[in-house]
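Risk register update: the risk that structure generation would not scale has been downgraded. Supporting records follow, first protein first.
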Amino acid sequence: MARHDAHRLIALLFSVSLAVCEPSQAEECEKPLFQFGAIADCQYRNGTSERRKYDLSPQKLASCIEDFNQQSLAHVVHLGDFIDTGWESYDVVLPITERSIAPFYHVLGNHDFSVEERFKPQVPARLGLRDRYYDFAIGKWRFLILDTNDLSLYAYPKGSPEHEASLAYYEGLKGSPPSYNGGIGKRQLDWIEAKLKAAQGAGEQVILHSHHPVYPIERHAAWNAKEIVTLLERYSCVVAYINGHRHDGAYGFKSGIHFITLKGMVDTEETAYATVSVFENHIEVKGVGRQDDYVLEIPAR
């Protein structure tokens, strides 16, 4: 079975039974509460490789934004690695996002910090972020945008207190995980828990985004992925976790939470992105190009 087909089969194991709408029955079909666009790893730079077509990313991104603008989206989120390398790369792709009709949100990725040391502290602001992690709500749905570069060997200038603390943390890890991954520090973990506690108390449901995956745990996962998942499992309001970083994509289901890694836009000559439709009882992920489709049941709590 091909990887693409296997991912679809896994998703369908957790799907709800949905009727196919004929044109004459369109008015009877369930409508989503809202929809949003999701992109992972645009990862632009001037160049190309056998698999990663960096120089095609602006064209793919422009086509994606044009598609999203034809839809009624609450927002669009890019899940990290907006560029591959070079501060000047932002000058090429950022103006494309300004064409988006829907608000455009960024998640910080490891390659977003592949710039000169002096520019590293400026990366969040370059992407329009006041904070490295943040949240917003749409109706009774809360979105948490996380920073899995909080602990990392690349996101801070060498010699800075943040870099030294991250280095000490990394040296204490077992198995020497990849240095292109990162983790979430205690202050942000406390913030996540406070947000989840408040969301649960308010009767909200929660979708989280980060760049690095946290489940299934494999070599692309955040350094403290197990700790993060353990925290999420304590709150029944958590419905889904959608991220990038692993360009081949992935799907996992644990403790009633759907974990989806979207495929990288930069890979191959074919694009990859998705429209996510949120319904009362399920979530539909409709992929374009290489991206798989998913229908995700929201378990009764």
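Supporting record for the second protein:
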Amino acid sequence: MTRRSKLLAAAEAVLLFAVLAASAFTSRSADWRPWGLVLVLLALALASDALAVRHQTQRISGSFLALLLAMALLGPAPAVAIGVVVTLLDGARTRLAPGKLLTNLATYATFPFAGALLIERTGNWTDLEGARLSFALVVFAAFMVVNLLNFAMIAGDSALHHGTSMRLQFRTIFVPVLPSVLASALLTVSVAVLYREVGLAALGLFALVLVVFQFLLRELLLSQRRAEQLASLQLGVLTSMVETLALRDRMTARHSAAVARFGRALAAKRGCGKDEQELAHTAGLLHDIGKFSFPDAILLAKTPLSPEDWETVRRHPEEGARLVRRMEAYGPVADVVLCHHERWDGAGYPRGLAGEEIPLVARIISVADTYDVMTARDSYRRVLSPSQAIAELRRVAGSQLDPELVDDFVALLERKGLAFRHGDDADFATELAFERRVREYARPRRLLA
């Protein structure tokens, strides 16, 4: 155990002791009445915990809802007691490591105490006894506060122990279940309000709430896993196509990798955000994917192409865009693929766009594409030195290419030594390893408790 982990464990132990002491000190006999309510909430919490849903490294349990009712209808001490008992029995059942059990105990003692105290103190400032709406709003607010506190403590422990990103955990664990959490909060608040009207009979509705919560959560996470499986399949198809293209024509595949590297660097130089930089990289890798449909007579031609062959070649942006657009959430990439042969003066293809009508990232890819075609081995034209290629870029700036982007790209080449070694498999492999980047486009933007 690292020094930081030891300090964190010590802090959790101190927090647990302080919460237990505070709840005992503030406990009143009235908080534990009726005993039937305490026992029913404890039983429901234990039953729900036994049916917990596993999501990635987290277990999501409806016991949180039972704890909220204990906070709202009983008091700090009973809520903490239920949280601790549920955690101890869960730890025994799942054989949790001592460190993890300590984290869970500290968490499941702290947030019930904080929530119950929040509701209790708010009740002292407002007439919760006589105002049904005020009571409902306070309980709902407490639910959301302690839900976030619960997540922050568990995720924070993971971040400190294992170096995982809190931001990433928030996006991938907290947000996917937020809709079901909000729905469950409303249902639980309704049960709390109804209990004040009809007593223990309202807990029959709460049992239904737990079943609905577990069902909605299970279905939500199942659909998310299916979406991720589909995204992985789509990603595998694109990866396989690029690799197959590399087997058919090493030159074209390495050209795409070079354009991806140059495009990303130019997007960064231009001041584009991270998303646009990733878009430039992905679109660079896929900008010539339409050539996958070329016959070998064109793809591997050693002599100048005929006019008919050039007509086929000119269709590759549309073919590539059509192919990429079939993949869910790849629309921005397809737009760039479609427009990467448009010209600044409007004489390009396939749509004859001009100037800033052409998407910025497509103009970036066009500059990177033009430079690499001139400096890398190519069957259609002679190879130019970097200085000759820079001179040619300057010559066509304002006609074929965006002149400001040309200036930025030349500055990169001259000051940072930006290059791609076409004969080096390592450079190709580095740019082709794009699963992490492309998956951002294949998944919906998503953000437990």
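The radius of gyration is 30 Å. On this basis the risk owner (M.S.) recommends closing the item.
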